[in-house]
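Class, look over these structure tokens:
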Amino acid sequence: MKSLFDSRVHGFLIGTAVGDAMGVPVEFTTRNFLKNKPVEGMRAYGTHHQPAGTWSDDSALTYQTIETLIQGLDYRTLANRFLNWYLYGDWTAHGSVFDIGISTRNALDRLEQGVEPLKAGETSELCNGNGSLMRILPLAFYFHYQQPKLSLDERFAIVRNVSSLTHGHIRSVIACFVLVSFAQELLAGKEKVEAYRTIQQSLGSFPEQICSADECELFARILKEDLIQLSEKEIYSSGYVLHSLEAALWSFLTTDTYSDAVLRAVNLADDADTTGSVTGGLAGLYYGLEGIPVNWVQTLARFEDIEDLAGRFTRFLHS
């Protein structure tokens, strides 16, 4: 039996990949299609014609972020790890990249051409996909265990930098910061609804310090209203960063087990792998490794490698 600390770390890494792999076969499907043929477990093939248990860029870039944190947070190192994934298939499920977002691809092309890491991410309002949100959660562990004395502004600056390797618009950065802040409250031992109420109180007026009123208003459903009370038809699951953030938080907050959270997330359809991955990471952190169905875990590609990374991340966080 792993300690609570170990179970959270392992649960996060495994939970991220499980949610991702559950969504890969049904990425880009419609919600109506999944109403008739809902995801109930690991599937093979489908959208990307991959074997069951195959995870995508969501998990791969999360793991590359963790590898960088273990070595020591350095943005050039992080950029190089992302490039190793993109160009050489490092930290992919089966040796090759089969899924990558447009903004992420454009940023990595610029990194390959020598653009400075913090200037590589696109800053246009039209470039607010979920490509940095999907890989940002390791920072919650880093802040909580390695850098607990950082101020809100210092944490925000790091989140901005890590996001900006691929997504530099303030909307993507704030979305990443909300997700990381929520996960930190979970790591502090708070019950999930209490954690949600805490970030509403602590971050409710924060965006107003750094963005326009119109931009801040986009986060009102999360920070000013009650996301939990929304119905499924009011939750969207596209690749837009705000849709992904809301869908993952809603799926996690309106369920009571890892499996229910991930199945709810994936069956929202559309960008199912990212919604599943982010939800799976939160739920794995919260319910621990023991909360993830064993038969799902056993199907995962590179399970032993993920376990090894989880062990190394655990030792780093303990140090």
User: Anything to note?
Assistant: The chain has one domain: 4-318. The chain has 16 helices and no strands. The domain at 4-318 is CATH 1.10.4080.10 (ADP-ribosylglycohydrolase fold).
